[in-house]
């Protein structure tokens, strides 16, 4: 029995390891290939990124997927960071869009979730059900209404046309509400008996109890909005305001080394944020999903 148990665990571990390698391989290829010279990239992937001259083009030569470069080169990073300010300018465009969305979304979701937690009437149940419906709808469905509202309010072609809808995202409210409902009611009643006001209950009890969920919301909101593409294309006609996520697709095939370098720089903020808060992210999602109500 023990041998069968260890054998089955070994098989499961091997399958999980293979899936982990498959998931992480594109990221590793992007990072390592960003240190390859343009000549080496052309030699390995030239057939993939060559210009198409006919409707039916097939790759006859084998593409060489190399994980380790023959010679490490920092030319691409030198070009991106020092010689091509457009890339860094787009990077800061992404930061100026995402940071206000994350801060505002966390603040609004915290207040809304506390309201749904403390108020359990039928009206609030209907409102929370509407939040769930909005959460299930893809963002592409809301692009046209957002465009019309932004045009009517005069916010079209400004960053606020993206920031304001992002602040009021329903998923964060849903996640924090489910997490807050795991706080024992006896704890709230004890605080009220001691004379605590609603503001003190909110700041001294609920917020400390929900640190992991709040961090989870911040991470998920950052990753989601850091990768935005449709919103800037539709709501911002000024190309100079587009974030780096949109600008990456405009790098031509003769600058593959720059594309790898820019993609690596683009991945650093969400990767660091995820690695730093992985424990809180798992805890927040797990506890939120295990609570009834």
UniProtKB/TrEMBL annotation:
GO cellular component term of the entry, any: plasma membrane
Stored Gene3D superfamilies: MetI-like
Range of residues in the leader sequence: none
Transmembrane segments: 12-31, 91-114, 126-148, 160-180, 201-223, 256-275
Keyword presence, Protease: no
Matching Pfam families: BPD_transp_1 (PF00528)
The organism's place on the tree of life at top rank: Bacteria
InterPro entries per UniProt: MetI-like (IPR000515), MetI-like_sf (IPR035906)
GO BP annotations, alphabetical order: transmembrane transport
Topology in membrane: Multi-pass membrane protein
Keywords carried by this UniProt record: Cell membrane, Membrane, Sugar transport, Transmembrane, Transmembrane helix, Transport
Location(s), subcellular: Cell membrane
Domain ABC transmembrane type-1: 91-277
SUPFAM superfamilies per record: MetI-like (SSF161098)
Family: Belongs to the binding-protein-dependent transport system permease family.
Protein name: Multiple sugar transport system permease protein
Organism of provenance: Maledivibacter halophilus
């Amino acid at each position: 029995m023990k041998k069968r148990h260890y054998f089955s665990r070994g098989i499961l571990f091997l399958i999980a390891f293979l899936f982990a390698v498959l998931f992480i391989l594109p990221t590793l290829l992007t990072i390592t290939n960003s240190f390859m010279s343009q000549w080496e990239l052309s030699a390995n992937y030239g057939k993939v990124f060559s210009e198409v001259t006919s409707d039916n083009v097939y790759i006859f030569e084998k593409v060489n997927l190399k994980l380790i470069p023959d010679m490490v080169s920092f030319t691409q990073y030198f070009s991106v960071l020092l010689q091509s300010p457009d890339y860094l300018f787009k990077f800061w465009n992404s930061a100026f869009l995402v940071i206000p969305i994350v801060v505002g979304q966390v603040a609004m979701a915290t207040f809304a979730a506390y309201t749904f937690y403390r108020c359990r009437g039928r009206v609030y149940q209907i409102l929370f059900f509407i939040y769930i419906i909005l959460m299930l709808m893809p963002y592409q469905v809301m692009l046209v209404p957002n465009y019309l509202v932004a045009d009517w309010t005069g916010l079209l072609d400004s960053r606020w046309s993206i920031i304001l809808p992002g602040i009021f995202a329903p998923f964060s409210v849903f996640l924090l509400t489910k997490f807050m409902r795991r706080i024992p009611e006896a704890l709230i009643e004890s605080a009220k008996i001691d004379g605590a006001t609603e503001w003190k209950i909110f700041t001294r009890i609920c917020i400390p109890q929900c640190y992991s969920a709040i961090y989870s919301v911040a991470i998920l909101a950052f990753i989601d909005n850091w990768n935005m593409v449709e919103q800037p294309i539709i709501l911002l006609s000024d190309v100079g305001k587009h974030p780096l996520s949109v600008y990456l697709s405009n790098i031509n095939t003769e600058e593959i080394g720059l594309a790898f370098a820019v993609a690596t720089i683009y991945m650093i903020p969400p990767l660091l944020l995820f690695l730093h808060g992985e424990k809180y992210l798992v805890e927040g999602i797990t506890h939120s999903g295990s609570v009834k109500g």
